Amino acid sequence: MKLTKFEIARILGARSLQISNGAYATVETNETSSLKIAYEEIKKGKVPLKPIRE
């Protein structure tokens, strides 16, 4: 499923918050910023969140 830029922004924010609150990252990275880690997860397709389309 291809994500729109709005879905990417929403998922990026939600996942970044989860990571900053202590959730484990699903990708191996050297980044320290939760936003950059979440973006890498989205690029690699490993983010554990999906948008609900109605």
TrEMBL record:
<dbReference type="GO" id="GO:0003677">
    <property type="term" value="F:DNA binding"/>
</dbReference>
<dbReference type="GO" id="GO:0042797">
    <property type="term" value="P:tRNA transcription by RNA polymerase III"/>
</dbReference>
<keyword id="KW-0804">Transcription</keyword>
<dbReference type="GO" id="GO:0000428">
    <property type="term" value="C:DNA-directed RNA polymerase complex"/>
</dbReference>
<dbReference type="InterPro" id="IPR006110">
    <property type="entry name" value="Pol_omega/Rpo6/RPB6"/>
</dbReference>
<keyword id="KW-0548">Nucleotidyltransferase</keyword>
<dbReference type="GO" id="GO:0003899">
    <property type="term" value="F:DNA-directed RNA polymerase activity"/>
</dbReference>
<dbReference type="InterPro" id="IPR006111">
    <property type="entry name" value="Rpo6/Rpb6"/>
</dbReference>
<dbReference type="GO" id="GO:0006366">
    <property type="term" value="P:transcription by RNA polymerase II"/>
</dbReference>
<keyword id="KW-0240">DNA-directed RNA polymerase</keyword>
<dbReference type="GO" id="GO:0006360">
    <property type="term" value="P:transcription by RNA polymerase I"/>
</dbReference>
<dbReference type="InterPro" id="IPR020708">
    <property type="entry name" value="DNA-dir_RNA_polK_14-18kDa_CS"/>
</dbReference>
<dbReference type="InterPro" id="IPR036161">
    <property type="entry name" value="RPB6/omega-like_sf"/>
</dbReference>
<protein>
    <submittedName>
        <fullName>DNA-directed RNA polymerase subunit K</fullName>
        <ecNumber>2.7.7.6</ecNumber>
    </submittedName>
</protein>
<dbReference type="Pfam" id="PF01192">
    <property type="entry name" value="RNA_pol_Rpb6"/>
</dbReference>
<keyword id="KW-0808">Transferase</keyword>
